[in-house]
UniProtKB/TrEMBL annotation:
This protein's UniProt keywords: 4Fe-4S, Cobalamin, Cobalt, Cytoplasm, Iron, Iron-sulfur, Metal-binding, Oxidoreductase, Queuosine biosynthesis, tRNA processing
Pathway: tRNA modification; tRNA-queuosine biosynthesis
Primary subcellular site in the record, as a coarse category: cytoplasm
Catalytic activity: epoxyqueuosine(34) in tRNA + AH2 = queuosine(34) in tRNA + A + H2O
Source species of the chain: Lacinutrix neustonica
Name of this chain's protein: Epoxyqueuosine reductase
Ribonucleoprotein listed as a keyword: no
GO biological process: tRNA queuosine(34) biosynthetic process
Annotated localization: Cytoplasm
GO cellular-component term (any): cytoplasm
EC number: 1.17.99.6
Binding-site residues, [4Fe-4S] cluster 1: 186, 189, 192, 246
HAMAP family hit by this protein: QueG
Recorded GO MF terms: 4 iron, 4 sulfur cluster binding; cobalamin binding; epoxyqueuosine reductase activity; metal ion binding
Length: 308
């Protein structure tokens, strides 16, 4: 049986690599003991802002066996999205993860292929795939699976490739070999804390979600608060500041996923282009992008807020 565990673990990791995932780590599906008090405290301090969904399914968030029946293993996967080219200077900025096609669709396709492979090669294995759309603490699982450590900006970090990647999971009812946790390499660095335009990183490793530019420009559906005027650093969808200044991201390498390549018009758009954007252009440029989440009216609201 142990031989099988080792064999199955190897073929799953090899196939994940073949599918284009940056790395694959595996941990035992069990209650996340250290995360429980941390999440409870974060929610009690209302750091989720209007993101009420963060309060739902508290138990499932911390225990995958409550989410997926008979689950034994959490397979964590990273997919690089670091772009080869960035937007022109002095323009309104979009987070790099939204340059190309919506990552949910891209990753779901790969997870489906990996699940199919596991069932073909190993047999009747059941489970569920997750991409940032269910009560799964993906960064905690990736760290537990040895894929990196959670940095002071609360993103997963690796010494080899920094933090510009998506995290996804397969939670399955198969026993596998588990990886061990890696060490923290943030040291005394406070680059992300010092650079955050809205001081959202309230202490090392704790981000007040309700102060984050990503929260305001994507999650918040109400009017943007006047108290935030002049603090958005020209970001109109998401924010990459804490990642851009992180020394470990010097090691980021461009992705090789064609579906993440930006729409040709996006990178060259000037402030004037953004200010004059029509719904037709919005639909054309962001037809398959995660930017659609804000809708045209939301993007306009964000641009107007910076323009005034």
């Amino acid at each position: 049986m142990i031989e099988n565990k080792s064999k199955y673990t190897k073929i799953i990791k090899d196939e994940a690599k073949r599918l284009g995932f940056l790395s694959c780590g595996i941990s035992k599906a069990e209650f996340l003991e250290t995360e429980a008090p941390r999440l409870e405290k974060w929610l009690n301090q209302n750091m989720n802002g209007n993101m009420q969904y963060m309060e739902n399914h508290f138990d499932k968030r911390l225990d995958p066996t409550k989410l997926v029946e008979d689950s034994k293993s959490v397979i964590s996967l990273l997919l690089n999205y670091y772009p080869k080219d960035s937007q022109v200077d002095n323009t309104y900025k979009v987070s790099k993860y939204a340059y190309g096609n919506d990552y949910h669709h891209v990753i779901k396709g790969k997870l489906k292929a990996l699940t199919h492979f596991i069932q073909e090669e190993i047999g009747a294995v059941s489970g569920r795939a997750f991409v940032d759309s269910a009560p799964v603490l993906d960064k905690a699982w990736a760290a537990k699976s040895g894929l990196g450590w959670i940095g002071k900006h609360s993103n997963l970090l690796t010494q080899q490739v920094g933090s510009f990647y998506f995290i996804a999971e397969l939670i399955i009812d198969l026993d596998l070999e588990y990886d061990s946790i890696t060490t923290d390499h943030c040291g005394t660095c406070t680059a992300c804390i010092d650079a955050c335009p809205t001081q959202a990183i309230v202490e090392p490793y704790v981000v007040d979600g309700s102060k984050c530019i990503s929260y305001f420009t994507i999650e918040l559906k109400d009017q943007l608060p006047n108290t935030m005027k002049g603090q958005f650093d020209d970001w109109i969808f998401g924010c990459d500041v804490c990642q851009d200044v992180c020394p470990w991201n010097k090691f980021s390498k461009p992705h090789n996923e064609p579906l993440f390549n930006p729409h040709p018009e996006l990178l060259d758009m000037t402030k004037k282009d953004w200010e004059e954007i029509t719904e037709d252009v919005f639909k054309k440029v962001f037809q398959k992008s995660a930017v659609k989440r804000t809708k045209f009216s939301g993007l306009q609201r964000n641009i107007d807020f910076l323009k005034e």
